[in-house]
Amino acid sequence: MTDINKTILEKAAGPTRFNPDEQRRFLETYEERVIASCTLEEARDKMYLEQYSTILTDISDRFHPVLVKISPALDESSQLQYLKKTKDLGLVASIVSDDCRHSPFGLIIHTDHPSGISPTDMSLQYPNLFEKKEETASPEKKPFWKRLFS
User: Fold this and answer.
1) End-to-end Cα separation, the chain, in angstroms
2) Which of 32, 28, 54 is closest to 107 using CA atoms?
3) What pTM did the predictor assign?
4) What domain of life (predicted)?
């Protein structure tokens, strides 16, 4: 009788998870499986959305399978844009449960085995895609009076 009670209590508590805090932090996956990541602020940035397909294509050429986890803390329009771009490339994407709402990550691109990539930050892996274009300084103009009397 105790075996049945024990089984019922285990099933009522839900599935057992290995390292649940790490899974909540990395949007329901493990840190060692992460290929690329970006924070919530970066995921909201238009530059990241524009370069997302390029990054995902490069990653899918190097790894198989490639899975994408999207944070529930992102606004719905951003979530849908990332989902659509991922589906267009024929990859699997999912919006994770609200348990991961407090994760600092907006996007996690991962695989089902250890990737061995460090650092996983997209801006560090692809610095040429995220360079801020600096405005070129215009040549220094002479003041009016110097031009007039020189």
Assistant:
1) 105
2) 28
3) 0.72
4) Bacteria
